Structures are given as structure tokens and as C-alpha cells.
């Protein structure tokens, strides 16, 4: 039997079920190559009819799927076709499908950078990166539930109406969309965004987009025809999620340094013996020096020590 590319029969191009299975295998290969799932982790699914869904099987690497491995289940998760056993987390997928009739594909994975936020219990911030705002919107974190438990789907329900990407606390991510390709793209984007945030934290301070910039960006998003639930009550009620910024904001601009008066100096915390010795050689008035001047002083002292040692 053939269904629409989005699993519907509403006039969209019809795609044979076997082709959808091949696409699921290709998406699994990409997930494996990207390192989003290790071993047999992760699962994804596609809606192919009002009461039928294709899903990946349990106990097999997503990088080596074959069309014959794909399972078919009904709306209650009962397997109706397939030689392998369906994924134990299909009930989570079905909870999303039931809550969102427009959703045609779901991808659950464990991308390392995004999962790091889920494990740390830190919400991904908004008002930082234009692509994340346009293609993801607000990314929420669902409370931890044992993987495979029927409550896993229930933990997502408070967020599925206004989100397309959700972090699963201490677990991973789930992304969903009108087709499998786009659900996969959201997986790529959420991990790339998480990685960018972690890199930015190590480089220096993070500059959020201001109110005018966000208003212009979200208006552009709406002109693209993309849903933006955060604007349903008007932009004047829009707020940015800044849990990440509030946690790291005090340290990113002075990473590895300590505040002294009007400037900063290398921190003695976790400093090597040589670094501590250099800090002790700084003049008493170092607090009145700029950061660049202190850097020059430290380099000068270091050069002198190295010259003496030579």
C-alpha cells in the first residue's frame, strides 16, 4: 500500500511504503555516522496512515538498518508486521502522534552536546542564535522517566503543542516534524546549537540578541510561514530563556581569572606552581591595571623566568 510522503492521503505525492523504509534506513545511517547514537541506541518512526506507523526495531545499530528490519505498529503500539521486535520506546512516539495530528515523523536520539544539557539540567537558552530560533524555537526539558516506561510519553505532553524539539532529562532528545527529513534536521540543529554554546562559553562572554533584533527575527520567521507559539500573546509578552546565561554569565568573561578591583588577573585556583609564582611577582598595584596590561606583565615576567632558566 502507498501513502503520502508525509504519511497522509490528502493529495500529497504518494510514496511507496518500501521507499519510506529505505528513507528510515538512510536516516539511521546518518544518525550513526554523526555519533548521535552509540551501539543500539535511539529510534525513529513515520506515520503511514490513520492507525499505522513504521518504526525502527530494538537491538540493532541504526547505522546498519535494512528495509526488512523496519516494524509496523498500530496506534496502541501493537506490532502488526516486521520480523524484528519494535523499539520499546514506540509508546513515546505514539504519545506525540496522538497529541499532534500534524506530526508525521519522530526521531529520538542521544546527541552528545544536547544530551550534556539534558544531563546537567540546564535549559537551552533562547535569543542567542538565529538559526536555532527559526528552526527550533524554544527547546524545553521534560522530567526524567525510565526509558521504555509508558510515562515517558506523558512527560512530553506539557511541551509537544508548542515545541518541535524536547530534551529528555538525563536521557537524550526527541524531535518531530511533518516529515522524517525535517525531524532529522532538527536533531542536527539542536546538537550543533548546543555545541556552539559550549564552545562560546569556553571562548568568552556570550552576547544575547536584544529585543529589537529578536522582534525582527521572529517576524521574519512568521513571514516564512513557520509557527511561533511564543508570539501568541504578542511580542510585548515575549521573554528569553536565560538559565544557561545566568549559570555561566559570571564566569565566561573571566574564565581562568579572578576579579581584582577594576580588572582581572589569572586565578590562583587550579593554577600550576609556576603560574602561582608568576602571580606572586605581580606588583601590588596590579588591581589598577587593565586586563591587557596585566597580560603584558605576566608575559614579561614569564619571559624573564624562561631567559634565566636558559
Summed up:
By secondary structure, the chain is an alpha+beta fold. It has helices spanning 17-34, 90-99, 112-120, 130-135, 151-156, 180-203, 211-223, 243-252, 273-280, 291-309, and strands spanning 2-4, 14-16, 43-49, 52-55, 71-73, 79-81, 105-109, 140-142, 165-168, 172-177, 257-260, 263-266. It has 2 domains: 2-203, 3-Layer(aba) Sandwich (L-fuculose-1-phosphate Aldolase), CATH 3.40.225; 257-309, no CATH class.
Q: CATH superfamily name of the largest domain? A: Class II aldolase/adducin N-terminal domain
Shape: globular
Q: Residue-averaged pLDDT, rounded?
A: 84
Low-confidence stretches: 5-11, 250-271
Main sheet overview? 8 strands, mixed
Describe this structure in words.
There is one protein chain. The protein is an alpha+beta fold and 310 residues long. It folds into two domains: 2-203, L-fuculose-1-phosphate Aldolase (3-Layer(aba) Sandwich), CATH 3.40.225.10; 257-309, no CATH class. 40% of the residues lie in helices and 16% in strands. It contains ten helices and twelve strands. The protein has an eight-stranded mixed β-sheet with strand order 6-5-4-3-7-10-9-8, with helices on both faces. A two-stranded antiparallel sheet has the order 1-2. Strands 11-12 form a two-stranded antiparallel ribbon. Strand 9 (165-168) and strand 10 (172-177) form a beta hairpin. Helix 3 crosses helix 6 (180-203). It is globular and about 80 Å long. Residues 5-11 and 250-271 have low confidence and may be disordered.
